[in-house]
Write a structure and sequence with these properties.
The protein is of the alpha+beta class. The protein is about 30% helix and about 20% strand.
Amino acid sequence: MASEEPMVAASAPASSSAPSGLRPAAKLLQRGMHVVLRDMEATQKVFWLGQGCKDLRMGRYPPIPIEVVLDQPYGAILRRSEGGQWLRYRRTCEEQPPPPAGGDEGGEEEYVSNALLAQDNSAQALSPGEVSELKGRCSGEEVVAAIASNSATFATKTKFAQEKYLRKKEQKHVQQVTLLRATLFELCDTYMKASRNKVCGLRFDMLSSILCQADVQTGGRYLVLDSACGLVVAAMAQQLCGSGQVFRMYRGGCPEKALVELDLGERRSVVRPLPLQVLQSDDPWSLEWLRQPEPTTTGEASEELLASKLVSRQERFRSRSADVRGLQARPVDSLIIVAGDEESDLASEALEVGLSHLAPGGRLVVFGQHLQPLAARQGVFRTSGAFVDVKLNQLFTREYQVLPQRTHPIMTAEAMLCEGFLLTATKVTNEERASGGDAVVDEAPRKKRQRS
């Protein structure tokens, strides 16, 4: 087992005269940042450390004071002690593992199993009431130790079975959270566990494949329909690093959950939201969204308030007009469509509008959760002659448990081995068709060279 140091108070601020080997203060949690908390059961939740935040509530755990979380590095572990306080839990390097059980000098091994152990819950001497009483006056580690010592079959289990037994009891009785950075991987994993439908079933490997297939790079121009809580446009904004343009189509609401929780800062400015109705209209300047504001004189508000509102509306009008003109100025490099199960009509309309803005040689990426609609569209693209490299992909991702002599795939119903399909293509143009069919033909063919 790992040797452990005593838990220390987590609220001590980082010293300015820390040695060079410690993390700099910029990598410590501060006010105004987002953090992902993961408990012992792998449940995750995103929190914003705002000025009004006083404590963090994670499931059935007692509230975690904000002072305990501030000035902590990412990856720090907080554990609730016997006195009810949340303290920083530190670990040292693990000791050398003991030799395998059952081995002797002759090199022979003794194979043992748990086949003879009863599975009727009769081996535990402690009743549920006694366990609850222990949890009220002891720490989680002491409760797990008491449960293991009062188990009649714990000593007869194999070494691997004992480790698995202790790990399961720790997940149930030890109150512990890990502070994680709000990265794309963690946000995607958190959203998938919380509500799969809200992110359109977009898994982290599919998100990575979308960025790769669309060739997202600094300085590019992209047109996107993102119904996955802003995960796609947030990933693209992070990839562009403030240089480029991401025109985001939307209808109704335009959720920016991932854009906010990724802490992009000024890099969010590359995302320009545009209503789909504006892109579909022949005269977008006649719509209410692009109508120039006029000064109002009605109401009881003061003239200064009216003037400030007029200035803000005019600034919004100039920004929207610049976004529309920027999209109409030249074609985009890639078109990305990510829609949910009930948004097939929205995806079709966005695809029809987006293809008119896609440059020749541009990439088309469509993500969907059902095979048949994408397979039908794949056939249409292949027969149209306007696309090449038309492919329909499905990713297979399997998570593994990596432990000594116990490395195997995780076999649970929530494994989600296959999740969604990805249709990709490259737009091309027919030069003869584009020029009206007037191909240049030589009037007289060249004479062949005769041998002398």
